[in-house]
Amino acid sequence: MAHVLIFGIGPIPLEKSRLFHAGGNRAWHLADALRGAGHRVTLLCMRVTAGGESNTQIERTEKEDLVYVSVDEVAHFADDSFLRRFVQETHPDMLVGACAYPAARAAIVAGDLPLWVDLHGYQMGEAQVKSFRDEEDGFRFHFWDRYRPALERGDRFSTTSEPHRYAVIGELGAIGRLNRHTFGEDLVHTIPIGWATLPMREKAPRKPDDPFIVFYSGGFNTWFDVETLFRAVESAMREDSRIRFLSTGGAIDGHDEATYPEFQRMVDASPFRDRFDLRGWVPSEDLPGIQEQVDLFINVDRFCYETLIGARNRITEMMVRGVPILSTLGTEISRILQENACGLVVPIGDCEALSQRILCAADHPGDLEEMSQRARRLFEEKFTYEATARPLIEWAKTPVRAGDAGKGVALLTAPPPVDPVRGVRAGFRLIREGLIRKLRGDQ
Q1: Is 37 helix (H, G, I), strand (E, B) or coil?
Q2: Is residue 162 part of a domain?
Q3: Cα–Cα distance, 361 to 374 (Å, whole number)
Q4: Does 202 fall in a domain?
Q5: Are residues 38 and 168 in the same domain?
Q6: Residue 147: helix, strand or coil by DSSP?
Q7: 122 lies in the same domain as 134
Q8: Category of 44 on φ-ψ map: left (φ > 0), alpha (ψ -120 to 50) or beta
Q9: Among 286, 351, 385, 437, which residue's CB has the most CB atoms within a 10 Å radius?
Q10: What is the CATH number of the domain that holds 123?
Q11: Residue 242 to residue 203: CA distance in whole angstroms
Q12: Distance between alpha carbon 89 and the CA centroid of its chain, in Å?
């Protein structure tokens, strides 16, 4: 079996933390699946420092088949020489980059080792919505520059959805990776968001007059449509005195520090503000107890390409825990919920439909319970760590470089290697031959 070195983002689920990044779950997802398949794993994760205090200590934890090393984002993870030394000292058989930036860092120091690039989130979709949210188009260049090394160097790729898979194939074509050397290779695979197989929550039966708690958990990100969420919940509160709203999570330091305060301002100005409970980021060990109190999880996305192509960690987590789900219909996972009758869905931006779904859900606790049971069964069938990570597990048995490795293939941003005069003549010849076939009736 292989020794796999994974570059990722911390903290991971093994650590107790108030701030839990989706990237931490992804790194642990791939690590745990590989360990389960018998591989030895070293996991190197950066501690995100934006908005927090810098800690330059190297923290190391060792278990039987796992070495976990936590390092500073700037002092260590951004340092090429540190990463190269770490790779040399670790002696892995292959590298995995879990999320775009860790994958790009792995690409720079991989040498000739096989590299699996896992793209958790659609980068250029995120760049577009970030540019819109902050009114600054420069983010496109920032996201692309951090992402491009992974596209240029990766030997195999994975994404979190089928739409994302095709988007990455398009990006590989745009930079010249779909060439004669890689023809016939299945370069890009889908590894949906997975989650640990936790026990379902134990929620006491709700009485008809009890409060009905609508719940959101996680970062208030750029694609989160907080205006539609607020208007829908406030409208439901106006019609039904049982409706409450509870959230955990908040602003994402260094990425989106505007969406959560915007939501807080709406809540503060509401006549129903006493029925909103915004708890901010809470310790991870408190979340199971909170999830046992709530009645309906809600996910409200903007219309944007990040939504249509990306994924939602929090939805998969609610499937595991047996929390009924209401989501706008945009991401692949929302469509899977709809197709399998495992969640309630409404059109993006439809405040009235969202409000009516909340009100209807409050009157049908039995239907919600049956729906959450179906979602749990679907999770156990398709969204465990092992079930989702099969492409990576299979490749790790005999990891190989991509067909164009070491071939010096020019990226499409370089001048064309073909004589332009010959190219024009060839184009005219193809047009002429097509016209002749048409006149002859061959087409």
Answers
A1: coil
A2: yes
A3: 16
A4: no
A5: yes
A6: helix
A7: yes
A8: beta
A9: 385
A10: 3.40.50.2000
A11: 18
A12: 30
